C-alpha cells in the first residue's frame, strides 16, 4: 500500500484494459471519483515507451528485414561497381 499525493491511502486494483490486461496498479479512491484514479503500476514496471517500442518492433521486424536485405544488395552492387571502376583505372595505368 502507498499514500497518494492527495493524502489518501491507495488500493491495489487490477487493470482490464487491452493494453495492460491483468496488471495491478495503485489506485486512489479520491482521484477515482473525478478521473481514472490511476497512480502507478504495482507490478514490475515496464515503461509505456518500452512496451510501445516492443509492439512497434514486433510489427515492423519483417518489414525491416526486407529493407535491410534490399539495402545490403544495393550496397554490394555499389561496391562491386566501384571495384570495377578501380579495375578499369588500373588497367589504363598498366597499359
Ligand atoms: Zn489521491
Name a few traits of the molecule.
binds zinc ion; 2 helices; alpha+beta; three-stranded antiparallel beta sheet; 95 residues
Query: Helix/strand-derived class?
Result: alpha+beta
Strand content: 5-15%
What gross morphology would you assign? Answer: rod-shaped
Spatial order of strands in the largest sheet: 1-2-3
Average pLDDT for all residues: 77
Distance from N terminus to C terminus (CA atoms, Å) equals 86 Å
Total DSSP helices: 2
Oligomer: single chain
List each distinct ligand once: zinc ion
Overall domain count: 2
Rg on CA atoms, Å: 28 Å
The helix/strand series, from N terminus to C terminus, equals EEHEH
Tell me the helix content: 40-55%
Q: List low-confidence stretches.
A: none
In total, how many beta strands?
A: 3
Major sheet summary line: 3 strands, antiparallel
